Amino acid sequence: MSDLPGPVGLAEALYPHTGALTTVEPTESGFSSDLTALVTGENGAWFVKAVRNRPGGRRDSLARERLINPWVHPISPAVQWQAENPKWIVLGFEIVCGRHADLTAGSADLHLVVELLNRIGELPLPEVAADWHENRWDRYTDRPELLRGDTLLYTDIHLSNIIIGDRTWAVDWAWPTRGAAVIDPALLVIQLVAAGHSPDQAEGWVSACPAWKDADPEVIDVFADANASMYRAFADRRPDATWLGAMATATRAWAHHRAGQGH
C-alpha cells in the first residue's frame, strides 16, 4: 500500500475503513489538524481529519472532537469511523456539501448563523464534557471566574467553520468546552466586527441569542477586555501574521465600544 495516494502511513491507517484509496484531495487545514482531506476508496468517500500520533495538543483536540461528536450531531457532520496506527490518528466524517458563511454586512447568511448559535446554545452539557472547563482567557483577565458556567461551548466561531448547504453546519469541534453561555455569541461579535460590522451592529445581531440577552453585561465586558489583551499579545508575538493584527484591531474596537457604553 506504500504507493497509494497521501502522506506516508496514511493509506495504511485508513485501509480497514476505506479499502484501497483512489484519491486524496487535501483541503485547507486549521490549527488543530496536520491534514484534512476528501478521500475516496473502494468503500466510499469521507472527509478526514488526521493528526500525527504523538502526544500534544493536536492529538488531544482530535480525541475531544471524537468524544463530543455524538452529542453535537446533526449540528456537526457525524464521525463514521476512527483509525489509528503508529504514525496517524484519523477521524472519518460524513461529507457535507455547501459553502462557507458570509459574515459581511447585508449578507443573507447572518440570520442562519445566529439561528445556528441558538441551536448550539440549546445543546445539553454531556457528562463527557463535565471537566472541560474553559480557561483559555484566564491569563488575560483578573476575573476568570466570570467566564465559568455549565454551557457546552463550540468556541470556534469562524466563517470557514460554518457551512451553508441543505442546512447550516458547524464543523471542526476541535476544542469544545464548558463555560459561560454568552461566550459563543460574544465570539460571533468579534468575527462580525472583523468582517466589517461596527461593534454596535455586531451586538445587534447577537441580541437575538437568549444567552446574550440573559448575560450579565459585566461578564461581556470582561470577555471583551480579555480578548483584546489576548490578541494584542498574539499579534505582538507574530507581527508577520496579518490575520492576528486584524483580530487585534477588531477586539480592541469592541472592547472600546463596551467601555464607552458604561457597562
Can you offer a commentary on this structure?
- By secondary structure, the protein is α+β, with helices and mostly antiparallel strands.
- It has two domains: 10-93, 2-Layer Sandwich (Phosphorylase Kinase, domain 1); 99-260, Aminoglycoside 3'-phosphotransferase, Chain: A, domain 2 (Alpha-Beta Complex).
- The chain is 39% helix and 19% strand.
- The protein has eight helices and ten strands.
- The protein has helices at residues 10-18, 57-72, 109-121, 183-194, 199-206, 210-213, 217-237, 242-260, and strands spanning 21-27, 35-41, 44-52, 79-84, 88-93, 98-100, 151-153, 162-165, 168-170, 177-179.
- The strands form three sheets. A five-stranded antiparallel sheet has the order 1-2-3-5-4, sandwiched between helices.
- Helix 4 crosses helix 8.
- The protein is globular, with a radius of gyration of 19 Å.
- Mean pLDDT is 93; it is low at 1-5.
- This is Protein kinase.
- InterPro entries: Kinase-like_dom_sf.
- It comes from Actinomadura meridiana.
